Fold:
Amino acid sequence: MNIFDELGDKKTVFKDKKFLDHRFLPDKLPHREEQIKSIAKYWVEALKGVTPPDITIYGKTGTGKTAVAKFAMKQLKEASKDQDLDIKTEYIRCTDYTTEYQVIARLCQQMGRDVPYRGWTKAEVINTFRNLLKKNAFGKDMILLVVLDEIDILLRNDGDGLLYTLTRTENVAILSISNYVDFKKFIKPRVKSSLRDREIVFPPYGAQQLVDILEERSKLSFVEEALEGDVIPLCAALAAREEGDARYALDLLRTSGELADEKDSNLVQGEYVREAKDYIEHNKITDIIMTLPSQQQRVLESILYLTKRKEEITSGRLYEVYKDVSRGDTVSYRRIFDFINELEMLGLISTNTVSRGRAKGRTNIIDLQCDMSVLEDAIWGM
Ligand SMILES: Nc1ncnc2c1ncn2[C@@H]1O[C@H](COP(=O)(O)OP(=O)(O)O)[C@@H](O)[C@H]1O
Ligand SMILES: [Mg+2]
Structure:
């Protein structure tokens, strides 16, 4: 008897879990038809041998930006397959390639030129890249479509040099994807003027739209009749409240299924969804907080302290408490604003500017955006 035998045969509500994975790219993307059409409308230029305009996609997490961009890339590849065209599409996740040098080196490598990830000057890498894009051996122009996913991370890290280079390289069109509408504040005017981009907005999904998305995916991933009737609507409703995040909806559905397996039940029940929600929330926030730099943790701890005391949190008051919490090992008042920004980006807090009359000017009020008990567990231990 092998120790894995029994486990391999264990009964399960899943037919194939991989269809609930984030990396799986579905053939159908309900409720994104319009956005897909917009990209196609611009990219079709490439099929006529013309470099398409640059595109920027905005939308909150889980609104299908990455999925749609990858889908459009796949479709373009298919459409250009049998044509006498040299169109290349490259997908870059700016969390993996975080500087201009790395991105350009990566693009060179994808086009068959071995450029090291360090050691060359930036100018050398850029020249190599531009030479690759000059007419190919047959005198035909190559068109390169670069998808820059999570571009705000790169911009914050490395500035707008990459956009400057790419927008000033012939035959290159970029599709940038950002989770934040205001990411262009990281771009200087000289780059803005060469980035004549078309913008496509991805609104949050509504509950009914999420139901459609989940139903499609559940057919692939669960055995028949494994889901109680209210499971999908419940996942959808909870995710609709989380800013229409399809990834969260899928996580809820998968985790609910895993709970059913754990409980040896062949039916996923509505109450498992609520359990799944607590489980995911807890893990997500705990993960984020655990990986924060310790100074940031102290800022968060100070916000938690003030929230518990039901005090209004201004940056001044926050700094006072923060100084107490850190016992001398403090950063400057100005750095606190960076921290507040970053915590807001992570969705842990929100800030709201209020006007206090002419004399006092405007003040930022900070609000906690995550569950207090989860935060307490993460910060002060279980
Ligand atoms: N319209 C849709 N139809 C089917 N699945 C979708 C749709 N929109 C998003 N998804 C799925 O939800 C998850 C999150 O989508 P993703 O494209 O990664 O969001 P974003 O990049 O905007 O954060 C992925 O697993 C994706 O396949
Ligand atoms: Mg994405």
Observations:
- Residues 292-380 form a domain with the Arc Repressor Mutant, subunit A fold (CATH 1.10.10.10).
- Residues 270-290 form the longest helix (21 residues).
- The pocket of magnesium ion (ligand 2) is lined by residues 65-66, 149 (CB under 6 Å).
- The mean pLDDT is 90.
